């Protein structure tokens, strides 16, 4: 190609950098707002952040209803062009809609020829990412791929017999390899997630780039706590292991009078409500369902500790939001959570799927002296600084332009102990 997408003017002799021209970026996602999950939230924040920096952003995603087509949508206060594909509802899941696989290449070819983007950045290899990567590669368009997906997370919604699930996982990873092979750069939110992707796909050089967060949107609360309130935020689904959290709450001493607030919706809501009744803690568990961003920030502010029992997190935006709200975190020692939760610094890690160990760690935080609790809260604020969304946006801009990139440092060493 004679004209590199997003090419920029060389720096003048005095060493100052001239302004680079805005890019036309096409983001492809199998899940996007109004869906509520980590991948959708990242794609939404990425798109909005790029628009705020002056780029022309287009999003290709399944339609959220029967209405499909191209129109302007506003997300995070920024206007962008949305190409909503005709979609079907996947009824084993409580909200999932998917683009039609056998029409995806035709649709992607049409959109690419209309938009003529400088770069395609897909967020999933499953349907939209596969179609975009195939058609973008034919047209010589630069491709960046990001993985937020673990095949195991979808197994409970496939209705596949357990006897064939292992084979299905292997097939899913092979499909991922084929799609990500078309990308000039492959990213995922943490180093552990990068190692995980390389292990199961055979890819090399996967970059660890944090999803990022705008910490200024959250309000740390250092007032003396008036109650012991544990908070969970996320999809109410099986892989989140919220049942482990409920059992841990039931094991806490009665004198702590610990309350649990669960923010989010999902297919396991009724089962978990029934479990809370069975455990005798229904009067201390609040199921909020989906809430507005304002109510979510309020929930973070009134909590004492954030709990994340999931064993399938490639990063966990909810945990990052909790840290930006100055909450200590009790999390499963699994997947990428230890990248966020430094044991004994800004929280505690517990043995995955072990409610008794989780109860011990929750009790430790809830019984902390005010000075110890404040130290953990301030550690969360310090650690979240490495995940600033502006750093993430700058890194992706460089990848889009084909510039050399040094992966952001997204792990911060614990603060030195005072002498």
From TrEMBL:
- Gene3D superfamilies, per the entry: Glycogen Phosphorylase B
Q: What is this protein called?
A: D-inositol 3-phosphate glycosyltransferase
Pfam families found in the cross-reference section: Glyco_transf_4, Glycos_transf_1
What's the source species for this entry? Luethyella okanaganae
What keywords sit in the KW lines? Glycosyltransferase, Transferase
What InterPro entries does the record point to? Glyco_trans_1, Glyco_trans_4-like_N, Glycosyltransferase_grp1
Using the record's annotation, list all stretches that form the Glycosyltransferase subfamily 4-like N-terminal domain.
36-215
Where do the Glycosyl transferase family domain residues begin and end? 224-375
**Gene Ontology MF terms:** glycosyltransferase activity
Q: What is the lineage of its organism?
A: Bacteria, Bacillati, Actinomycetota, Actinomycetes, Micrococcales
Q: Which domain of life is it from?
A: Bacteria
Q: Does the keyword Glycosyltransferase apply?
A: yes
